[in-house]
Amino acid sequence: MGWATDVGRQRSHNEDTVLVVELEQAGYHRTLPTGLLILADGMGGHLAGEVASALAARTAAQYILQACLTLLPTREHSADEPSLKEVLTEAFRRANERVTERVPGGGTTLLCALILGNQAYIANVGDSRAYLVSSTGCSQITRDHSLVDMMVELGQMTAEEAAHHPQRNVLYRAVGQKGLLEVDTFFCRIPPEGVLLLCSDGLWEMVSEEEIARVVTTSSSLQEACEALVEKANQAGGKDNISVILAATPGVADSEFHRPER
Amino acid sequence: MPNPDKDPKEGEGRPSGEDLSTRVMPGLAARRMGTGLTAPPTAAVPPPTGPARQAPAPPAPGSGRLAEGTVLQDRYRILGVLGSGGMSTVYKAQDLRFPKVQRFCAVKEMLNTATDPRVRAVMMQNFEREASILATLQHPAIPQVYDYFTEGDRAYLVTELIPGKDLETLLNETEGFFPEPQVVQWAIQICDVLTYLHTRRPQPIVFRDMKPSNLMLDDQGRIRLVDFGIAKVFQSGEKGTMIGTEGYSPPEQYRGVAEPRGDIYALGATLHHLLTKQDPRLEPPFTFHKRPIHQYNPAVSAELQEIIYRALEYDIQKRFGSAEEMKRALLSLKSARGLVSTAYMPTPEGVHPDALKVIWQFACEDEVRSSPCIHEGILYVGAYDNNLYALDAETGKFLWKYATEGGIASSPAVADGRVFFGSTDGSLYALNAETGRLMWTYPTKARIYSSPRVQFGHVFIGSDDHHLYAVNATSGRMAWKVETEGAVRSTPATGPDAIYVGDEEGVLHAVGVNGRLIWRFRARRAITSSPVVSQDLLYVGSQDWFVYALDLRAGWVVWRYRTDGPVVSTPAVAEGTVFIGSADGHVYALDATNGYLVWRYRTGGQVTSSPAVYQGAVYVGSVDGYVYSLDARTGQLRWRFQTGGPVVSSPRVANDIVYVGSLDHNVYALPI
């Protein structure tokens, strides 16, 4: 796992928040190696952006970790437990409520990946992105909740037009908006040779996917790759805050976890 | 729930609550085609839904709201605030020029916040030009403009005061839905006023801000178009100021195109909101098609829905060419003539059930509940007449049958030249697949409804004796059995190194190949549905009405989807979609990774049959007696075929032929 966050070249302060937790339990009961990665990109003046992104990340982390500690160590599950999707969605809704209450005028994107062994459960609101990166390139997992992304999807705009549209930064969904927050959830397996990348638009608007894949696959460590990506974004102008998290799977053998009880 | 009044992103021009009993036309600023009225491209666009990135909060409006009693221009005495939005405030005022009578009017005040003096001057000029154009409009649905003027950094527009309620307020206050004829009458009136605006010369006027809150229902029950959004003249073009919610605007507006058919789209959006009560400002933009009107309000006619969706076409050319044309379409509705509207009924258009030619059918002597298995040109199926039948898959010709001591509900499986199946006589049978000669039997202690799964050289099958059995496929000797909490009628699934099966007490068991427990999951009712393994997830239905996706290795719930009835049907997973039936009568298509509903299709009876997916089509039976073929992507009916009895058997497809059994005793072979 590696991460980096940087103010960029043109902003006075960093409104992004990165929160990373590694969780493992050993002993009689074992859990899969668990990772919680959260990235939030705040918006709103007068420090509202950084307050919103930090509050959202912490609120979501608190709820998800609590659920993980309850759910993970057992082999007996039931319909009385919330599903992982419900856990992630509820965590985002709590974050939304708190940001709406405490940071009027502020908002934030929120992207979270809960990694259990080689599986990633991802939840997203806004235009931070999750990618699976391998030597063959980047494949985007999440979908931006931006006006231009929707226009592109509907064939009303080309990707090229979207990249330069004056309203390309307008989101139709973000933490800090009134009402019940709709949350996108995704499930994916991280292949042994693949890396999960979470980033704010400060990276993907500045550095091409090909370049991202090249940096990730040629760096000697994930941490080094994170720093190199930030550097690339800054070289390209660093128009916005840049945040990056990279995670690879710990290569856990199925049989290891499948060790039957008794 | 946060108080919407406190929300900084409250839409421009939307009064926040207070006194809505008399709303007025707070301002008028129609956008004319090609005038370049609001020069900066961003300002020409209405505020989209949601917050803008990097958005500084807008300056608080009404800093220095006019006090009651203030007199403007020696003529308009302010009596109170009617509403306020992002950039403007609307006051109720009395016109002092008419001292003998009480003549009220509405005064809309707009703040020019631009700092650049040249920009300020241009904005004021635009305002005056707009206001003077609007003052020339004469239509009963458009409130009259009495006056306009500027004072310092503020611009004012004085209009007729309209007593009544706007449709958004009315919608929020109304329990249930507006009746269709009512909405159609409003829509016709709106088309009339749009036709008036769009036929102005030299240039058509585009209203650009059609939404329920800008439609007033006056005290005579007539629709009046208020708030042409003149305040937008004062919106600066800077990034980040696009705060507020829109939701009704056509896609082309975000490309800077404003033309009459944009108003038609927005009218479609408004009608969608009025009929469904689903506020588009809370949804992703341009997603009306994903919220079919009849799904929220079944009383809406298919014809009206069709008109609304034509108005909502993304492509301008596909919409009605004019408001007049849309009005004509509305007038053709039954509901426009005051007749009772016909409720929405899904009509299988262009589908002729009789046109489907049966390739062959074969009559057994009793009900066929078992699902066929096709292997090397032979179809195997069990029947309640105690027999397992082997038929020629191509012609339906009878090859042989094998009689057991009980009805056969179990669906056969073929491996290594053997056909395996259970019988309600309690035994698991292995026959020579070619000849039907008995190889071995394995007796359990109760009836078998479960179907065999062959893997790892073993046959896995459940029994009503509360056990899951692993039986050596060659010798017929039991390798192990696992005690379950309830009868096992579910068919086992196998993963890379484990076996999964549900029981009638609602427990799903994950068992290693050695018979040891790996994990268990407890649903709230029986799991009769058979689990299916795909991509690290295990999908299964339960009679507790849910479809579950469980983590294959640990058994926790990844997502679940609640249907409206017990789920006995076994899921089919293809191309990232889970297809499953429910006793609520629907076939569901759910996103395999997150459980979002992709579509659902309503049949005439319970769907306990399990779907089969083949070349982009889903095949499934229903207790209503039909076999359905649906488009896998859209859920649209391709064809349906009526059998003589309920279809609980699950179709199988091989060599472009659909095979299915029916309780009318027949096995059918149908063309895909």
Descriptive key words:
heterodimer; A: 262 residues; alpha+beta; Phosphatase 2c, domain 1; six-stranded antiparallel β-sheet; five-stranded antiparallel β-sheet; 8 helices; 34% helix; disordered C terminus; B: 672 residues; mainly beta; Phosphorylase Kinase, domain 1; Transferase(Phosphotransferase), domain 1; four-stranded antiparallel β-sheet; 7 helices; 13% helix; 32% strand; elongated
- The secondary-structure class of chain B comes to mainly beta
Count of DSSP strands of chain A: 12
Q: List SSEs of chain A in N-to-C order.
A: EEEHEHEEEEEHHEEHHHEH
Basic shape of chain A: globular
Shape, per Cα inertia axes of chain B? elongated
Average pLDDT over all residues of chain B: 84
Assembly type = heterodimer
CATH structural class of chain A? Alpha Beta
Calculate Rg of chain B over CA atoms: 34 Å
The CATH superfamily of chain A appears as PPM-type phosphatase domain
- Beta content of chain A comes to 25-35%
Strand order of the largest sheet of chain B: 2-3-4-5-7-6
Low-confidence stretches of chain B: 1-52, 54-62, 236-245, 339-351
The number of domains of chain A = 1
Q: Sheet with the most strands of chain B?
A: 6 strands, antiparallel
Largest sheet of chain A: 6 strands, antiparallel
Number of alpha- plus pi-helical segments of chain A:
8
CATH superfamily of the domain at 1-162 and 230-244 in chain B: Phosphorylase Kinase, domain 1
